[in-house]
TrEMBL record:
Record domain Metallo-beta-lactamase: where: 13-225
GO molecular function, one term: RNA endonuclease activity
PANTHER family reported in the protein's UniProt record: CLEAVAGE AND POLYADENYLATION SPECIFICITY FACTOR FAMILY MEMBER (PTHR11203), INTEGRATOR COMPLEX SUBUNIT 11 (PTHR11203:SF37)
Annotated ranges, domain Beta-Casp: 241-364
Stated name of the protein: MBL fold hydrolase
The species this protein was found in: Dictyobacter aurantiacus
Annotated Pfam families: Beta-Casp, Lactamase_B, RMMBL
Entries under CDD domains matching the protein: TTHA0252-CPSF-like_MBL-fold
Alphabetical list of InterPro entries matching this protein: Beta_Casp, MBL, Metallo-B-lactamas, RibonucZ/Hydroxyglut_hydro, RMMBL
Keywords attached to this entry: Hydrolase
Amino acid sequence: MHVLFIGGTNEVGASCLAVQIADQWIVIDAGVRVDRSADPLPNFALLEDKDVRAIFVTHAHADHIGALPLLHQAYPDAPIFASRATGLLMEVMLADAQRIMQRRAVDEMELPLYPGDLVERMLNQVRPLPVGEAVTVPELPEVTVIASPAGHIAGAVSFGFVASDGSLVVSGDISVTEQRTVCGAQPPPIEKPDLLVLEATYGARLHANRQAEEQRLAQAVAEGIERGGHVLIPCFGLGRGQEVLLLLVDAQQKGLIPEFPIYVDGLVRRVCSTYHLLPEALTPRLTRQISKGYYPFAGRRITYVKDEHDREHILAGEPACIVTSSGMLTGGPSVWYASRLISNPQASILITSYQDEESPGRRLLDVVDRRQDHLDLDGVSTLIQCHVGKYSLSAHADAGELASYAASLQPLYVALVHGDEEARLALRARLPDAEVLLPDNAAEFTISAGRVVYPVTHNHAVALSQLAVGIGKGRLFERAHVEQLWQVVSQIPLLRIVTARELALIWEGQAHEETITRILDVLKQDPRYRYFMPHRALEEAFYVRGKSTASELFSDLIGQVLFVQVAFGGSPMPALCRGLLPTASVRVQFAPGVSDRIRYAYSTILDVLGALPEHIEERQVSSYLTELSRQARVLRRSLSARKLALACQENTSYTLSELCELIGVSSRELVDRLAVADLVQRSSSLFYVQQMPQFEEGQTIYTLAPNWQEALKKDEAEPSTSQLDRRMVLQILEQHIGNPPDLYRRRFDPDTGDLTLSFHFPDIAKKKYQQALSEAAEEVDVSIIISPYAHQDALSEVAQQVLPEGLSIQSHPSVYQESKHIHFEASGQTTPQALKEAQTHYRDLTGWHITFTGATIGATALPQTLPEMVAEPVAGVLVSPEEALQFATQRLSSLPGFVRVYAEDSNLIVSFLFPDVARGRHASLWQEIADATGWHVKIVPIAARDALIEVARRSLPDGLVCVGMPEVLPAQKTVRLIYDGYDSQEDISDARTEFQVTTGWMLSLLHVSSLPGTTNGSHLHSRALATRPTDKPYRMEDALHYAQELLKPLPGYLRVKVEVDSHTLIPRFAFPDIARERYAERLASISGVTGWNVRLHMIIYPPALKEVLTRILPEGLSCVDTPSIYQEKRKVGIVCVGQAAPELVEEARRHFIEETGWELELRGSSVEVLAEECVSEHIPMLARGDAMVRVIETFGTASDFYQLGVDDRRTTLWLHFFFPELARSRYAAQLEHLSQETGWKIEVDKDVHQKALVEAVIRLLPAHVTIIGKKSILHEQLTLRLTCTGILEPEQIRHIQQCFTRETGWSLVLDFSGQQAFYLATNSNEQKASVEATARAPLHERDAQVIVQTKLGTYGNIRRLLVDAIRHILMVNLQFTNGQRHIDTTLLEELEKETGWHIQLT
C-alpha cells in the first residue's frame, strides 16, 4: 500500500491524500488554502501518470473540497463518493465559492480557479455512500470501504479501506464531543489498521468546557444587546453558524437570556435551508423535530436576511444579534457588518471560529491582547472601539480526544496531518504506543502488508449497485418512467427526501438545467403524486412515497394556508396551519370570529392554497386571513362555475392550479386560488372532489361530476353577478334570529355583499345566535359576521345597573376592547362581597370585566385620610417657615420617591410616592428635621396610585405581561394584578418581594387562567407582547387611554380606534381636515409618548356634517337630498330648493370651509333662481303606488333606468340608473319636479351598474381587442380599470376614454398585456362574407368549442380555449406540433360559418 501526501500535512488547508491500494489509485479530499497569499491549490502535479479510479470526500468544507472541480477535470470518469449529506452541501458550498471568485475577478482582477460549468459536471459524478456500512464499489472490486460518522459537521465521515495489501483509516476532521447539530465521531470498525491518517488541528491544546463556553457566549450576546448595540458573530457558514443559532435559541427558550431578534445572513442562511433536507445526518433530536414539521433553523426567533436593504434596516433598528459568514472576516456579509460596527463602542464582535494567522479575524483578536488598535477592512483602516470576545466552540477534537481516538484503533502507524508543526509534535508525544509519522507535502512511503489483516467485524461488504446512475440509458424521461425511477430510489436506505438534481443524476447520468427541468416537468404531470410528492417548504425537493411517514409528508403543511371545512354543512374557510398533532390532525388559526376550535383532523383539509406570504408578520396573520377571505369572495362572485365546467373535459383530473388557469386567474396568488376552490366546493352538482389530501398524502383532485350536463340544463342562464338584494338578505336574517333588541347596526360590504352585525355585547350575541347566523349565511351565500367591538354606551348603562350600593361613578369609563375590560373612577364605600357580585353579574350580562378605583372597600375604612405625625421637636428654637422649608427641601430632595414639602400650622407636611416605605426608612431624618427647625413633621399617608401601578408592572418577571389595568386596594394596601404568560414560582415570589420593598404595599398576582370565563386563547395578543422590553412602545390599553385623555377635551373629537396589526391609533374627529391642521402638535405628542403610529380617520362624520349644514344654510333654502360626499375632492354637494341672495350663499360656503375644511357645492339654489311656487311647505304626499306610477311614467322609457326601490320608513323612492353620476345631472329637473309633485324624497342610488360599465367599454373597443383578467372599479375616483389583449395607439385610447366618459360619467384606464395574437386578417370582400356568415344565430358555446377543438386539434395542441360570450368570440391558444406556422384562412371561415362564432388564434 503506497501513500502520497499531496497537501494539507503541516497546515490547515489544501487537504489531499492519494493512496494506492489493491493496485488501484484513489484520492481522498481535494481542498484549497484559506490563506490567499499562498498558492491555493494542492500540488496536483504529483498525480501525473497515476490512474485515479475513484475519489472520496470526507466533508464539505472548502479546505477539503475547494479544488475538487480541478481534480475532476483531470479525471472526468472517476466517480466521487461521499455521504448523501456531503453531496448536497457540496453543491451549496461550491456555488458560494463561485460567487466569491466572480466577485474577486471583478474587484481584484483575480482569475477564478475554475468555471461554473465544470462544477456542474463534477456534481454529476457524485455518488452517495451509505454511512455505517461496509461496501465495495465497482471501480475498486478488491477494496472494502467503510464510512463512519466523524462528528465535526453534518455529513462528515471518516473512511476505512481494507484490501489484501493493507488497511487504512483516514479520519478527516473529527469531533468526538457531541454537538447540538451532530453526534460525536465513531471510528471505522477496523482492528489495528496498518495506517491511521489523523488530523492534528488542536493537537497542542485542550478545549475549555463546551457547555461553559456556550453559556459564556450567550451571556456575552445578551450583555451586548443590553448595552444598546448590535452583536455580530462571524462564523463558518457550514457547521458553526448552525451551532450558534441553536445555542442562542435554546438559551432564550430556557430563560437564561432575554429574547432579542436573531438575523441570519450569507452562507449561514443557505446552509440552514439545506440542513432541513438531510435530517439523517443530524442528531436524533433534530431528526425527530424535522420529521414532525418543525424546522429548528427557522421560526419566530430567527429571521433570514435577503439583501443589503435588509442589512441597512437591521443596523438602523433595535439592537439585534447577527450570525453570518465568513468566520475569519475575509469576505461575505460579516465584513460589511464589521466595517460599520467596529468603531461603535456599544457594538460587539464575538469570534467563535478558527482564525488563520493572516486573517482579519486574527488581527481583531489581537485587540484582546492590546497588540493592535486598528483593523484594515475593505482597504480602510478603522479604529477598533467595539467590544471583542473569543469563544471556543471548536468542531475539532482536542489533544486528549485525538489520542483516545487513535488508541481505540491501535494502528501500526499514525500519520499526523492538518495541523501546524507545534500541534503535530505535541500530539506525537501523546501517542507512545504507535509509530508516528510527520509527513510534509509531497512526502510518500509504502507500508508492507506482511502482517495478518483481521476481517472487518460485524460488517459484511455489500456491492454498491452500479445502476444508481444513468438508469435511463439515454432515454428521454417520460411519465411512464416515473415508477421505474421510484423503484430504484426507494431501495436507497434512509433516502426519504430526494432533490430533482439527484433524480436527474440517477436517470440521465448527468444533472444540468435541462435534465433537472425535464424531471420537474414530468413529475408535475402526475397530479396524484403517487411516487414522488413535492415538498412545499423546500424548492425542487420531493418525498419518496412508501418510505416517508405520514407525519413527514404532512410536515410541510406548517406555514401553509389551508382550505378547511369548519363544521359539517358549514362553509369552508382559509386557515393558517400552525403545527401537527399526534392524533392525525393539524393545529390551525382562522380569521377572528370564524371558529374557536384550533384542532382539525386531516380529513377536514379540502385543499392547500399556498404558503403564507413572507412579508406577513406574526401579528398580522389574523387581519390577513380576514382580508384574504373578503377579496376571494369578491373575485368568486365574478367567476362562473358554468364556464369552468364547460372548459373542463370529462374523465380528466384537474388540480386547483389547473382549474385556476382554465378560468383565467392566477394559479399562484392565494386570493385567486381561494376564490376558485370556494367556487368549486359550492358547485357540487358540477364538480366532484375525487381525492382529498389525507388519502395517500396526495393533492386534491377535481373532476366533472357524473351528471354535470344535466345540472347545467337546469339553469342555462348565467348566474347574476349584480348586487345582492339587501332586503332579501335582511328578511332571511330576520327569519333566523328575529329582531334582537341588542342588535343596533347592520352593515353591508359594498364589494362583497357581506353583512356585519353590531351587537351591544358581541360575546353574549355569539352564544345566542352563532348557529342561526351560520344557517342564514349558507342560505343567502354571503358571510355574516358579528363585529367584535362592544357598544360603549351600553357597557356604561349596564355598569350603572350592577353598581354596588354605596358607590357612584365619577367619570367617563376607560374602555379596553382588546382585553374586554372597562374601568371607572368611583367614590363611596362598599364591601368586597358586593363588588365581587357586581363583577360576576356584569360579566354574565356583557362578557366583560369591570373594575373601579377611588372607592373604599371594607366597612372599617376611613372616609378621609389626614397627614400622620412622624416626628416632634425635642428641643430647639422654632425657625421661620422659609428657613424650615429650605432646610427640609435640602435634606429630602435627593431621596427616592420624594414629591414635595409644605408648611401648615407649625407642621411640615411631606409627600412621598410611597409613604409606607419612607415613614420607617427615614425615621432618623424626620427627627433631625424636627429638632433643627422646631417644627412638627407629618407625612401624607396616601400612596401615589399611578406610581403603584407602574412599579407593579415593572416588577413582573420577563415573560409575563399585565392583562388590563391593575386594581389598587387602599384598605388592604394591596395592588391586584392579572397577568398572562408563564414563569417559575421563584421569580414570581421575587417580584412580590421587590414590590413590597419598593412601595411597602403587597402585590397580589393572579394568572389569567384563574379568572372565571377566561379561555386560553383570550389573551393571545397579550402573550405575544410579553417578550417586549420595557423601553418599547406603550401597551395597547395604555396607549389608547393616553390618547383618549389627551383628545377628549378637543372640539369635534369622537373616538380613538386601534389597529393592532399595524400598531396604529386612529383618532376620529367630526371634521378630520380641521383636526389635522389645528391639533397636529398634540397628535405628534401622542406618537412620541406612546411609541404608536397615529393616523387620523379621514372620513368626515355625516351627522356632524348635517348639523353644520342646518346651521349655516341661508334662510329660504332647504336641503332636499342626502349630501353627496366626495372624499378625494374634499367637497360636499347638496341639492337645495328655495331662494337666497348670492352673497348669503357665498357666506355659507365660507363658514362651511372654516368649520369643516371642505368645500360646499350648492345645486339648484338661488344661484339658479328657483320659482317661488317650488318651495311650498305643505306638499300633499301621494300614496305609495301612485308615487311609483309617476316615477315609471317619467323614467320608464329612459334607456339608463333599470330599477325602482321604496323606503317607506323614510318616505323615499330610490331610482337605480346604470350611471348614477350622469343621471343626477341629466335628470336634475325631473327629479326635483317629481319630489314636489309626489311629496316623496326622490334619490338616485349611488352604486353604478358594473356590468353596464364593462359593456360600454366592449362596445367601444375594436374587434381584435379583448378584455382579460379582473375588472378594478374605484368608486371614489369614479374610475374603471381593465386589462386587455393587443395594443392600441394613444389616439385610439384617448378617443375611447372620451366616449366612455360622455356615455357613463366615469373615467376609463386601459392596461394592455402586450400579448399579441396572430389573428388571420382577411381582405374586405372576405371580411364582408365572414360577417354575413357569422350573422346567423351562434351555436351554444359548448357545441362551438367541441367543433373548434376537433377541427384545429389536427394542427397542434390546444393549450387553452377562452370564451367571450358577449361578443361570441372563441380565443384559441394553439401550439403547432408539425412545424407548420399558418392555418388556411378558408378553414377558419368554414369554422365561423358552422359555429356562428368569430375565431381568434393566439
